[in-house]
Amino acid sequence: MSSKPPEFDPQQMSEHMKNSAQQIWQAGLGAFAQAQQEGSKVFEALVKDGSKFQETTLQAQAKMAEAAAKAGAMANDLGQRASGQFDKLEGIFEERVAKALHSMGLPNAQDMADLQARVTALEAEVKALKAGGKG
Q: Among candidates 89, 93, 91, 92, which has minimal Cα distance to 81?
């Protein structure tokens, strides 16, 4: 028994092509709609991730500014302490030098100031005596 090939029916084939074209069109529209929907989801996810990143960046900047301020305060405090220690060392050095000079019989700054005051006073007395002797 030989099987007979199906008969060619142009109308049936036309209907079949029309249905196929309709399905292809609908599949394309569905793909487009899905791409739009997925695209907006991807866009929203990117915006969300960007917001998180921005927040993290701002927090990091705030922490860096805080750390810089603390470091500046520590440096200032350290500078003041060092200055205070330097002043203290300078005072000790001056005292020791003054003691050493005094032990050698040399006058210190106060002795020199007192001597200058006495010289000024004596000059004034000499001037007064000279002026009184003329008159």
A: 89
